[in-house]
Design brief:
- The chain is of the alpha+beta class.
- The chain has helices spanning 11-19, 87-94, 127-139, and strands at 31-33, 43-45, 50-55, 61-66, 82-83, 98-103, 109-115, 118-124.
- β7 and β8 form a beta hairpin.
- The chain is globular.
């Protein structure tokens, strides 16, 4: 699963980005969602090693280093998952089109990009969602 502190786009916007043609080349640290498998909106992270926090027999919290996770899903084809980009990845994808990001009075975020030489503002409940909404406009 993912680090809750890493800001990511919503799963819904990630699906829209994929459907609009956003390409993904999976790397360690990338986040993804597995649709149609009864995982809800759970987001996973690509990692070479799984580290599981648990309680040992003495009642102490410990970190268990596991090489693999034993469960029913051994692997999945990339086309069956949805990449859920982080805030930083989305900003990099906007590249030189990105102008500004700011928080509005109502707490939502606004991302300003240049399209056809004109500044255009896109909104989202979170900064990653504002970036994702702006990126969608560049893909359409």
């Amino acid at each position: 699963m993912t680090d809750a502190a890493t800001p990511i786009a919503s799963v819904d916007l990630a699906r829209q980005l994929r459907d609009a043609g956003l390409e993904w080349h999976p790397r360690e640290g990338d986040r993804f969602h597995i649709p149609d498998r009864d995982f809800g909106d759970r987001v996973w992270a690509i990692s070479e090693m799984v580290i599981e926090p648990r309680q040992n027999i003495m009642g102490e919290r410990e970190l268990a280093f596991n090489g693999t996770v034993e469960w029913a899903l051994d692997s999945i084809v990339k086309k069956e998952v949805v990449w859920v980009p982080t805030e930083g990845q989305l900003r990099r994808l906007l590249s030189d089109r990105f102008v500004a990001l700011y928080r509005e009075d109502d707490g939502r975020h606004a991302c300003v990009i240049r399209l056809a030489g004109e500044p255009i503002t896109y909104h989202g409940d979170t900064a990653p969602d504002a970036y994702a909404t702006a990126l969608l406009a560049t893909l359409g």
